[in-house]
Design a protein that fits this description.
Helices cover 56% and strands 16% of the residues. It has 23 helices and 18 strands.
C-alpha cells in the first residue's frame, strides 16, 4: 500500500533514475549481484530513507524478474538439449556417439563436474560403466556395481532416482571397498542417479556428480530423468536396429545360401544327367573319367577294388590312399589327403573301386557333392559292366565245364564243336594252355570264384567251378608260374590263403580233362606237403610231381635235376654223373666210391666239388639228395636201347614230346 501512496505522491527523481538503471541492467543481462547492489549505491549517493526503501522494493522486483528470466533461459536450454538429443536419436548411426552426447549434455545442463552412464548386465547381475564425461580416474571408469550396492546399484535395483549431497558420509547406501575407492579416486561428493527405463525394464543408470557437496533440486532430477529417458530410447533403438540389421544379414545370407544351393543343385543335376547319359549310351570307364575331369577341372583316375587302374585322364599314375579310401568308405564322402581327393565307389556297402581327383587343392561344397555324384554314376557303370561280365562269365563257365567233363559214358563229346564255341569267345585252344584249380577257406570260395573269373578275363582265358572248386584255363606254357602268381594275387585280394595247383601245357580240347585231373592232384599234394597258400605246377613238386603226373615225363624231370651235370659231361667228356652214381650207390661214402671208380679219393672230392658248383651248394641236403638220387635212377630210362635219346612215349591222349637229348 505504501508503494501506491508513493506512486500517488509521484516518484522521486533519484528513484526514477535508479529504476531506469535497474531496467537497463536487466536488459543487459547483468549479474544478480549487480542488481542487488543498487539500494546500497543509492543510499551512498545521499538518497533518503523513503527513496532507499522504494529502490529496495524495485530491486526485489527486478531480481524476481531476473530469476524468472533465468528459469526460462535454463528451461529453454534444457528444451534445446532435449530437442538436439531427439535429433541425434532420429539420425542414430553410432550408439556410443549418441550416449556420449547425452552424458555430455547432462554434465553441461546440470553444471556437474562429472556425468556418467552405466548399463545392467543380467548375466552377472550387476551394472557396469559404459560412458563417462569429465572423469579422470581409470579405476572409476572400470567400476562394476552389484545390484543394491552404492547409490547406482540401489537405483538399478529399485528403479527410483536417488541423490546424495555428500556420498562419502551418506549412510543410506551400501558402501563397498571397490566403489568407495573408485569414488574417492575420482573425488566425487554430491551424486545424482536416475534409472534408464525401457517399458518396465531397467537397463541402467544415468548420473551427474560434483567433486564438492551439492544439493540436487527437483528440477535437476527431472532434467536428468528426461535425458535418461532419451538415453534409454537410444539404447533400445540401437538394440532394435542391431537386431534388424542382424536379421537382414541373416536373411541375405540365407538368400545367398539358397541361391548358391539352387545353382549347385542345378549344376549337380546337369552333371549327373550328362554322366548318366554317357553310361546309358554304353560309354566306357575312360569316357566317364574324361567327363568328370572336365566337370571338376582336374586329373581323374579310376581304380578297381584291388587298386588296379581302370582309367586315367589328365594326371600321372596315382595310388589311392588306403586311409582316405577307408574313411570315404565309412561315411560315403570325398576325403582330401596327400594333395588328392579320394571317393570310394560303392554299391550299398560293397566296394567297387575308387575315384581319385588331382590338381585341385580344395573343392567347394557343391563341387564336393558333384565329385560324390560322379562316384555314384561310376558305381552304376561298374555294376553294369559287372552284370555283363557275369553273364559272359556264365557262358564261359559253361564252356569250361563242358571242356573239362570229357566224353560221357555214351561217348558223346564233340571236341570240334567245343573248339568252335571257344573261338567265339576269343579263346584259341590250338595254343598251349594251362589248367589251374584254386581253393581257400569254404566261406570265401564264392568270392574266390568271382575273383578267378576276373583274372580269367584279364588273361584271355576261361573260368568256372567244378566239383565245388574254382578252375581257370589260361593260355601259356608255364603252369607253375601261373599258379604262383594266382596264389599271391588272390591271397592278397581275399585276405585269406589261396592255394593253387596247376598242370600243363596242353593243346586242344581233348587234353583238358586230363590236365584238370592232374591239377587237382597237384592241389592235394600241396596240402599234403603243408604248402597251404602256395601255388605250383606238377613239375615244381619234384619227384612227387613225376608220380602225380599222368604223362610220366621222366626226361623233363631228369633234365631239370641233373641237366647242368649232363651238359658238363657231354661238353668235356668228364665222369661227374658216374661219380655221383657211385657216391650215392655206396651210401655217400668217399672211400667206397673211389674204389668203385678206381681213382684217388681226392679225385672223388674234386668231382663232387664241381657238382656242387653246377647244382648249387645245397645239392647234398636230404631233400636235394633224394631228388638227385631218384634222377640218377631214372636217367637210364631216358635213353634208347642203342644208347641214343629215348623217343616219345604215348600218353593217355597221344604221344608226348620227349625231353632233350641226354649225354651219358
Amino acid at each position: 500500500m505504501g508503494t501506491a501512496r508513493r506512486a500517488d505522491a509521484g516518484v522521486p527523481a533519484p528513484a526514477a533514475a535508479a529504476v531506469r538503471r535497474l531496467l537497463d541492467l536487466l536488459a543487459a543481462d547483468a549479474p544478480a549481484e549487480e542488481l542487488a547492489g543498487r539500494p546500497t549505491r543509492t543510499r551512498a549517493d545521499g538518497a533518503d530513507d523513503a527513496e532507499v526503501a522504494w529502490i529496495e522494493e524495485a530491486t526485489e522486483a527486478a531480481l524476481s524478474v531476473r530469476r524468472v528470466l533465468d528459469q526460462h533461459r535454463r528451461r529453454e536450454a534444457e528444451l534445446v538439449a532435449l530437442f538436439d538429443t531427439a535429433g541425434d536419436l532420429a539420425g542414430l548411426r553410432d550408439l556410443d556417439a549418441v550416449l556420449r552426447a547425452i552424458v555430455r549434455r547432462a554434465r553441461t545442463l546440470l553444471g556437474a563436474d562429472v556425468a556418467y552412464l552405466t548399463l545392467n548386465d543380467p548375466l552377472a547381475r550387476d551394472t557396469f560403466m559404459r560412458v563417462t564425461d569429465g572423469s579422470v580416474s581409470a579405476a572409476f571408469q572400470q567400476l562394476r556395481l552389484g545390484m543394491g550396492e552404492g547409490l547406482g546399484g540401489l537405483v538399478a535395483q529399485t528403479a527410483r532416482p536417488y541423490a546424495s549431497t555428500d556420498y562419502r558420509t551418506d549412510r543410506r547406501f551400501h558402501h563397498t571397498g571397490a566403489i568407495d575407492d573408485g569414488v574417492a579416486e575420482e573425488g566425487l561428493r554430491g551424486i545424482l542417479g536416475v534409472p534408464l527405463r525401457v517399458g518396465e525394464e531397467i537397463i541402467g543408470v544415468l548420473f551427474a556428480a560434483d567433486r564438492t557437496p551439492r544439493e540436487f533440486p527437483p528440477e535437476a532430477i527431472a532434467l536428468l530423468g528426461s535425458l535418461a529417458d532419451h538415453a534409454a530410447v537410444a539404447i533400445d533403438s540401437a538394440r532394435l536396429l542391431d537386431e534388424t540389421r542382424s536379421a537382414l544379414a541373416r536373411l541375405e545370407a540365407a538368400n545367398e545360401t539358397a541361391r548358391a544351393h539352387s545353382e549347385a543343385l542345378h549344376r549337380a543335376s546337369d552333371a549327373h544327367d550328362r554322366l548318366t547319359r554317357l553310361v546309358l549310351r554304353g560309354a566306357g570307364v575312360d569316357d566317364v573319367a574324361a567327363e568328370i575331369a572336365v566337370l571338376l577341372g582336374g586329373g581323374v583316375a579310376i581304380h578297381d577294388p584291388d587298386g588296379s587302374e581302370l582309367a586315367r585322364i589328365g594326371t600321372g599314375p596315382v595310388t589311392p590312399s588306403a586311409a582316405s579310401l577307408a574313411a570315404s568308405h565309412a561315411d560315403g564322402r570325398a576325403v582330401h589327403a596327400d594333395d588328392a581327393w579320394t571317393c570310394a565307389v560303392l554299391a550299398g556297402n560293397e566296394p567297387l573301386g575308387s575315384i581319385t581327383l588331382t590338381g585341385r587343392a580344395d573343392l567347394s561344397e557343391a563341387e564336393g557333392r558333384l565329385f560324390e555324384r560322379a562316384a555314384l554314376v561310376t558305381a552304376l557303370l561298374l555294376l553294369l559292366r559287372r552284370s555283363v561280365a557275369e553273364a559272359e562269365d556264365r557262358v564261359r563257365g559253361e564252356l569250361l565245364d563242358d571242356l573239362l567233363a570229357g566224353p560221357t559214358a555214351a561217348g558223346h563229346w564233340d571236341a570240334g564243336s567245343l573248339a568252335l564255341r571257344a573261338r567265339r569267345l576269343d579263346v584259341d585252344l590250338t595254343r598251349p594252355h594251362a589248367v589251374a584249380v584254386l581253393d581257400c577257406e569254404p566261406p570265401q570260395r564264392p568270392r574266390l570264384a568271382a575273383e578267378t573269373a576276373r583274372k580269367a578275363r584279364g588273361l584271355g582265358g576261361l573260368a568256372g567251378t567244378r566239383h565245388g572248386l574254382p578252375v581257370l584255363l589260361a593260355p601259356g606254357d608255364r603252369p607253375g608260374a601261373l599258379a604262383r602268381a594266382l596264389a599271391a594275387d588272390l591271397t592278397r585280394a581275399l585276405g585269406t590263403p589261396v592255394t593253387v595247383g596247376a598242370a600243363g601245357p596242353g593243346l586242344g580240347p581233348d587234353r583238358l580233362p586230363a590236365l584238370h585231373a592232374e591239377a587237382v592232384r597237384c592241389l592235394r599234394a600241396l596240402y599234403a606237403l603243408d604248402r597251404t597258400g602256395d601255388g605250383a605246377g606238377t613239375a615244381d613238386l619234384g619227384f612227387v610231381g613225376v608220380l602225380l603226373g599222368d604223362r610220366a615225363d621222366i626226361a623233363s624231370y631228369v633234365e631239370r635235376v641233373l641237366g647242368p651235370v649232363l651238359a658238363y659231361d657231354a661238353e668235356r667228356g668228364t665222369e661227374l654223373l658216374r661219380t655221383l652214381h657211385a657216391y650215392y650207390e655206396h651210401g655217400a661214402s668217399l672211400s667206397r666210391a673211389k674204389d668203385t671208380l678206381h681213382v684217388h679219393v681226392n679225385t672223388v672230392v674234386q668231382r663232387l666239388d664241381r657238382v656242387a658248383q653246377l647244382l648249387g651248394p645245397d645239392w647234398n641236403t636230404p631233400a636235394r639228395a633224394l631228388e638227385t638220387h631218384l634222377a640218377l635212377r631214372l636217367h637210364p630210362l631216358t635213353r634208347a636201347p642203342d644208347g641214343g635219346p629215348a623217343g616219345p612215349r604215348p600218353g593217355p591222349n597221344g604221344p608226348s614230346p620227349a625231353g632233350p637229348p641226354m649225354a651219358g
